[in-house]
């Protein structure tokens, strides 16, 4: 049975068992896909980093209601100066990899700084000079480990926080359907799936 509506709180009282499969569908798929990549001796740094950045957006949408991946990415970084640059660093990573499959250089007072993605070899958030240019190293294995920890923390929050469960339930329900109304598109979909759509 799916939760119950409570008049006094004007919200749905959804149990963890009501949303557990939905949580696992979203975050379990992401984590399993990333773990498959990470199981390789040498991997696709850019692909993993891009998926991890997109997963930050997904977690932000479900957990914080924002959809701003930088809200999650910031929590994966240490205190101090990384908190100041978290949003711009996230944007460089996510937008660069998703839209250009590369990251833009950063210029600070005329000096170029680059992002470097490491599979396992270089320490996460270290600086490595490559061809005379300082590179901020993002170790994708460490980044994913931190992201998986954020997933686990969210899962634990859902077990004890009814409001968080209700939000996940509503968000999941709202993101699952695209209505097709353009007549040419309706006709095309009918032609593709034949008798399944009448």
Characterization of the model:
The chain has one domain (4-196). The protein is globular. Residues 1-9 have low confidence and may be disordered. The strands form 2 sheets. The chain has a 4-stranded mixed β-sheet with strand order 3-4-6-5. A two-stranded antiparallel sheet has the order 1-2. The longest helix is centred in the first third of the chain and has 23 residues, at 16-38. The protein starts with a strand and ends in a 5-residue tail after the last helix. With 198 residues, the chain is α+β, with helices and mostly antiparallel strands. It contains 7 helices and 6 strands; from the N terminus they run ββααααββββααα. It has helices at 16-38, 45-64, 69-75, 81-99, 140-160, 162-174, 183-193; strands at 4-6, 11-13, 106-108, 111-118, 126-130, 133-139.
What is the distance, rounded to the nearest whole angstrom, between the alpha carbons of the first and last residues? 31 Å
Percentage of residues in strands: 5-15%
Largest sheet composition: 4 strands, mixed
Helical residue percent? 55-70%
pLDDT under 50 segments (min length 5)? 1-9
Average pLDDT value?
90
Based on DSSP secondary structure assignment, what is the total number of beta strands? Answer: 6
Cα-atom Rg, whole angstroms?
A: 21 Å
Number of helices: 7
Specify the overall morphology.
globular
Q: Assign the structural class, choosing from mainly alpha, mainly beta, alpha/beta, alpha+beta, or little secondary structure.
A: alpha+beta
Whole-number count of domains: 1
Lateral strand order in the biggest sheet: 3-4-6-5
Element pattern in H and E: EEHHHHEEEEHHH
């Amino acid at each position: 049975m799916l939760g119950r509506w409570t008049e006094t709180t004007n919200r749905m009282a959804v149990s963890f068992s009501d949303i557990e499969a939905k949580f696992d569908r979203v975050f379990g798929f992401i984590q399993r896909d990333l773990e498959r990549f990470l199981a390789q001796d040498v991997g696709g740094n850019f692909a993993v980093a891009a998926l991890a950045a997109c997963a930050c957006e997904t977690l932000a949408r479900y957990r914080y209601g924002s959809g701003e991946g930088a809200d999650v990415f910031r929590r994966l970084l240490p205190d101090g100066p990384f908190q100041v640059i978290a949003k711009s660093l996230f944007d460089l990573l996510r937008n660069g990899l998703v839209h250009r499959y590369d990251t833009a250089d950063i210029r600070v007072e005329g000096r170029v700084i680059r992002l470097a993605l490491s599979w396992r070899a270089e320490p996460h958030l270290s600086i490595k000079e490559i061809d005379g240019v300082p590179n901020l190293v993002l170790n994708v294995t460490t980044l994913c480990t931190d992201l998986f920890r954020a997933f686990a923390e969210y899962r634990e929050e859902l077990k004890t926080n009814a409001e968080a469960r209700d939000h996940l339930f509503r968000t999941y329900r709202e993101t699952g359907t695209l209505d097709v109304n353009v007549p040419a598109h309706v006709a095309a979909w009918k032609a593709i799936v034949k008798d399944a759509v009448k």
